[in-house]
Amino acid sequence: MAEHQLDKVEENLDLNLGRLSKSETPRKEYYLQFDSEFRKEANLMAEHYEVFYCLEKSIRRLVLELMEEKFGQNWWDEQVKEEIRKGVLKNIKREEDTGFTIRSDENIDYTTFGELSQIVINNWSAFEGLFKRGQRAFQRIMSNLNQLRGPIAHCSPLAEDEIVRLELTVKDWFRLME
Fold it and tell me: Cα(31)–Cα(29) distance, rounded to whole angstroms?
């Protein structure tokens, strides 16, 4: 009962009394210095970020695998437009110049979401067996995902309607492959 009462006190006063559930991990000591409104917002947005992270990573892996399967190991140099390849090299160079840890050895991880979509459309023969609903359906879903990605990736809360739209668009993505 005491734990339950402490949970209520923490919730009502937006406090963290330092009690940890078994599934919780401790926050950095500076976390409580952030405005409680931002912490609440971040907590709500974390679920959407996690969904989009998994979705985007799986789309990138899917593109990589299908392009290699269809065009071989040199697919990047042979099948991706020069404009996209140059942009990727620029992004890689910019990252190298920071001195931070390089995020990936795969060029595809340096493409924008829009460029990723272009790679698929420009090489549709590698994907038409998977996306049986066609290019237009693929483009519409990718466009919606790209629109939804903005607020998620740039720390803005999603409006209620956009949360519903994200859920529906993710369902559309998986339906695209049925």
Answer: 6
